[in-house]
Every structure is written in C-alpha cells, then in structure tokens.
Design brief:
Layout (H helix, E strand, L loop, with lengths): L4 E6 L8 H9 L4 E6 L14 H6 L4 E4 L13 H9 L3 E4 L9 H10 L3 E3 L18 E7 L6 H14 L4 E4 L3 H7 L13 H8 L8 E4 L11 H11 L3 E7 L17 H12 L7 E8 L5 H15 L3 E2 L7 H10 L2
Parallel strand pairs: 1-2, 1-3, 3-4, 4-5, 6-8, 6-9, 7-8, 9-10, 10-11
Helix pairs in contact: 1-6, 3-4, 7-8
C-alpha cells in the first residue's frame, strides 16, 4: 500500500462511517494527499478534494477506501468510482470484509490497467488455537463500552507516550486502520473464531520483562453483535492492564438505539476484567479513556472528573489532553 494516499469517503453520513479515513488523516497525515467524496457525503477531513486525474498528476499512488460500514461490504454505487481510479493509474486498498480482489468488476479493472489491489483483512499467516500459556513481558489492552469509542486512538497515544518516556513499547493493531497506519498487525475480526485467541497470542509474543505490548481493542463484551471477537482477543491478549474507553455523552449502543443502552463504566470494566482473569489472574483496570470530542473543554474536564470519581482510576481524553494520567499510573503500579 504505497503512499501518497487519496482517501475515499463515498457518501459517509458522519465521521463514524469514515473512521478508517480519519485514522489515516490523524496518524499518517504526511501521506494523505487528498480526499474523494461522492455526492451527498457529509464528512470533510479538511484535505483537498481531488479527482482521480488530479490525484495521479500530483503523484498519488493509492486510493484507500476509508469507509467502515456495517458488514464491511463494497457498496454498489462505489464500483464505478473505484474502477475509474484504477483506470486513472491508482492502486486501491481496503480493509473491508468483502475483498476488492473478489469483486469481478474491480478485479477485472485492476488486471486491465496493471494496478494492485490491497485487501488488508486477508491475514498473511495461519494461526493456532490459543494456548493460555503465560508469556513474558507486559500487555495492556483497550476495551470499551461500545464500538467506535476511541480504543485505537487510545492505544496509539499511550504507545507514543510510553516510547517518549523511554519505555519499551509496541503498538499492536487489531483492525484495518491500525494496519494501514503501522504496516503490521492482524484484522482480528477476519480470523476464524476458534483461532482468535491464538492470533492475539501471536500478535503479542514473549518479550523482555519491562516491555509493553499496547493492544488495540475491538468490539465490546456487552455489545449485542460484536462481543465474540472481543472475548477471544481478551483471552489471547492475556492483559496485565486494561483501559476502559467510552465516548462521553453516548447513552445507547451505536446502531442499536432504542434497544440497548451503553453500560456504565463500572459494569463495562468489571466484565472485561473478569474475562481477562481466565488467562491472567492478575489482570486489572488501569485507567479510563474518554472521547470528549463532542463536548466543550469545560464539559470535557467535568466528564473526566466524573469518570475518575466513578471508578477511582485516572481518566483522560488521550487525544485532546494527552494520556499522561494513565501512563503515570501504569508506570507507578508496574514499577
């Protein structure tokens, strides 16, 4: 997947649908040359809008499908745009469940124009079932009250802060956006269920005693659809520390409004810690990450104080205010 990138936003109605594109724009900004929006798109990443001809003229190499829709499918209305990008000289990359290479029109266009298709949800290796064997080193896992609450951004921010302080740390991506950002990792929800915990063990192997594997979470144990992948990831990660992530102000599970309320921070952390103690009896909650992007600064700081009061753990918005409170506590507890 060669930079520079043109980020495909399709007709995304809000930033939640474009989290792959927004993640690249945030964490690989220098490689993101522009955005491509179809009519009706309501997301603007602040990048230059480009046609495919303009993108190739400016040296762009890859069209990245920046949409994370429910089910991870290639929407029919995208196809003429993707094939036009291939015809214009761009490669195409996606992290969808439905693979570009498996789509007959897209595959045919790529072959006709000599372009490369990158499907990042296709693991390049096979995995064994989880062993539950205690591994050396330390592991921290991000968990959540819901999907799309900031688990990836939290892990990236904590990993960066640990390395800034001279600590040994590795960010472990478990989704397509993290893979696009770092060039490594596993889209854990593409792994056959029996092998999820084994894949998580592979992703965070034995390490030096003071080394931290900072593992991006997926789904949520109290989610009606995506708890399965979370459980395998929790068991295989064997975390010493868990950070509970939540979007401040979210009251209902996204996409299940009117059916399922978001659990409290207390309940969500407790169920994840209980699950983690199957493979690591010493697993513990270490902090709270709040996405406060929809709040004013005063309201954000109030929400952080409320979260700390609820759980008795340090809380922060790791993007807005930095992850120092969590990292301070982590290094103190595991000194």
């Amino acid at each position: 997947m060669q930079p520079p990138f043109l980020l495909f936003l399709g007709t995304a109605p809000d930033i939640g649908w474009a989290k792959t594109a927004s993640g690249l724009a945030e964490w690989r900004a220098d490689d993101c040359a522009g955005q491509y929006r179809m009519e009706g798109c309501l997301v603007d990443l602040g990048l230059p809008d480009m046609t495919f001809a303009e993108a190739t003229a400016k040296g762009v190499r890859t069209l990245v499908i920046g949409i994370a829709n429910d089910g991870g499918y290639i929407a029919p209305e995208w196809i003429p745009h993707i094939t036009a990008a291939l015809a214009a000289g761009l490669d195409a990359a996606a992290g969808l469940h439905q693979r570009l290479a498996d789509h007959p029109e897209i595959s045919k266009a790529a072959q006709a124009h000599g372009r490369t298709l990158h499907d990042l949800r296709r693991p390049q290796q096979t995995f064994k079932t989880g062993t539950g064997r205690k591994r050396s080193g330390r592991r921290m896992l991000m968990v959540g009250t819901d999907c799309a609450v900031g688990k990836k951004y939290t892990a990236l921010a904590i990993d960066r802060e640990l390395r800034r302080r001279g600590a040994a740390s590795t960010f472990c991506p478990t989704g397509q956006t993290g893979i696009m950002i770092t060039g490594r990792g596993i889209a854990i929800d593409s792994v056959v269920a029996d092998f999820i915990s084994g894949a998580a063990e592979w992703l965070s192997p034995d390490a030096a005693p003071d080394h931290w594997h900072v593992i991006e979470g997926q789904g949520a144990l109290l989610h009606p659809a995506y708890a399965g992948v979370t459980l395998g990831l929790v068991h295989g990660s064997q975390p010493d520390a868990l950070v509970i992530c939540h979007e401040a102000g979210r009251r209902e599970i996204q996409g299940y409004e009117g059916q399922y309320a978001c659990p409290s921070l207390t309940d969500a952390l407790a169920v994840h810690v209980a699950a983690a103690r199957l493979t690591n009896p010493d697993a513990r909650g270490i902090g709270i990450s709040l996405n406060t992007s929809l709040l004013s600064e005063d309201d954000a700081r109030a929400a952080i104080r409320d979260a700390e009061a609820e759980l008795g753990l340090p809380a922060c918005d790791p993007i807005r205010f930095g992850p120092a409170p969590i990292v301070d506590h982590l290094l103190d507890v595991f000194a």
